[in-house]
Amino acid sequence: MSLDFGVDIPFVHHLGFTLERFEGGESTLHFAPRPEHCNSFGVAHGGALMTFLDVVMATAARSANPDSGIVTIEMKTSFMQPAPAAGGTLVGQGRLLHRTRGMAFVEGTVFGPGGQLCAQSSGTFKYVPPAQPAGPLPTD
Question: Is pTM, for the whole model, over 0.70?
Answer without folding.
Answer: yes
